[in-house]
């Protein structure tokens, strides 16, 4: 009997064919952990919202909060406090936290830069400088226009930072991108402070430098919600492409991804999210640094899970930071930016040191 000298060939219809059809299936991710993270994060967020709405100078019970939300009576003072002051404030925290978290995740994925954050890369400073121009030269400008100016300021800052980081020999690297962002932030902050002193707009700019959501009202949420909702939906739609970019541009192009349009769309989403958030909460950094890193540790490197997890974790972080801001030294409020920086600065130094060792 003659034995065949040919070894059996693997079937192309099996796992290898599936991997070719879906190159993301081998990406390290934890779907069950991701779902659990998002669900638990949402439960924690709901609890934080309930505590934040009921806690304040006037302690209000949960039953009163329930009645004020679902059976509002404008003649009752506790209902007015909840509906006009506390509820828009805490919902603003949720929207701002989700915006910063997702913008940071997209920036880190597109640039493969673990230090990327809208605050560290100058976008927040650009939006703040645009607001300073508005307060100095166009006082009384409606809030809808302030958001548009914030978009423009953040967009111009992004262009300048990427241009500066790309000028050096060797091209754009994470450290050069960070240095360009820090330099531009210092410059624009100095310009903003100069406008503040010369035009005496210190009171208008105080909220931005301190960072906080105390002045958030329903009109603010009504204007910013459509922008943020569209941008978040776009981020989720773009998540698969961001995952491919995070593997490296050569790999992404090898898998058929057109990186140019993806980066352009991702940059627009980041600008919309960062501009909207800064127009409400002011100079708050590190949310977009912390939330995506925690999300990646929990759910893996698939941005189809990282982006929604970053949104939830960012919302939780800002909501509880605002709650802490009201409890550290009552009846005064501590700026949210300062509290988040207590966590963000040591974490940033750790990442920067790790990045330096790996260069």
Automatic annotation (TrEMBL):
It is a multi-pass membrane protein. InterPro entries: ABC_BtuC-like (IPR037294), ABC_transptr_permease_BtuC (IPR000522). Residues 1-23 have a biased composition (Polar residues). Pfam families: FecCD (PF01032). Keywords: Cell membrane, Membrane, Transmembrane, Transmembrane helix, Transport. GO terms for biological process: siderophore-iron import into cell. GO terms for cellular component: plasma membrane. Residues 1-25 are annotated as: Disordered. CDD domains: TM_ABC_iron-siderophores_like. The keyword Methyltransferase does not apply. One of its GO terms (molecular function) is transmembrane transporter activity. It is found in: Cell membrane. The chain crosses the membrane at residues 38-66, 86-107, 119-138, 144-165, 177-199, 227-248, 268-291, 303-324, 336-353. Belongs to the binding-protein-dependent transport system permease family. FecCD subfamily. PANTHER family: FERRIC ENTEROBACTIN TRANSPORT SYSTEM PERMEASE PROTEIN, IRON(3+)-HYDROXAMATE IMPORT SYSTEM PERMEASE PROTEIN FHUB. This is Iron ABC transporter permease. It comes from Paenibacillus lycopersici.
